[in-house]
Amino acid sequence: MKLEIFNTTHDLGVKAGTDAARLIREAIDSRGVANIILATGTSQFEPLQQLLSENIDWSKVVMFHLDEYVDLPVTHPASFRKYLGERFISKVPLLKAAYLIDGEANPENECKRLGKIIAQHPIDVALAGIGENGHLAFNDPPADFETEEPYIVVQLDEACKQQQMGEGWFQSINEVPPEAISMSIRQILKAKNIVCSVPGKRKAMAVKNCVEQPVSNLYPASILQNHSNCTLYLDTDSASLLTERKEKAVN
Prior knowledge:
By secondary structure, the chain is an alpha/beta fold. It is 31% helix and 19% strand. The chain is built from 8 helices and 10 strands. Helix 1 (9-31) crosses helix 2. The longest helix has 23 residues, at 9-31.
């Protein structure tokens, strides 16, 4: 795992999006297609914006996404299908394919459906973030590091619900669905490259735990230490609790 630290969230997003675009183009040049995973949430606003500005043959790109709430209508402001539809899919109409998680379907059946599809699409580039509680996708602590299932049904913990409300996606914590469909930890780690964008002061402790604690399912994103092609894109706020040794990675 590599760290890159920037002075501003904008600079972080530009570099993450630029690097993701380069990796996507390399996959297309190598195999004629790129399979990618996109994340959602406020951490992805600027990386996605940069990615969309890049010169990419989207007709050769297949997209998956990380997670979706169970039983949340696609019309709800917090729906990740809505997020990706508005912020990405509608802007790349020539996309080869987009496999979205249908949170309104039977959760177990949806996990099986998507699991069969992604098994046929080795992932070249995964864009991800880290939650305030250290989660990766919706794999809250203690995360399941063992399951080989590509998608699983998970229970959201209170810290995760608080974050979703705090970011303005819900008016109250009681509105946050208790369950979600999430890509599993092992499936995320199968990506050849992981571009992980983590801006903001409120993510500082999660970043410190991810980088400096031993790998543990109590700090789910710490598993990224084991990935040889993962880069954490941080700003000075999210990197503020790292030790002096780690701060030498600052750009």
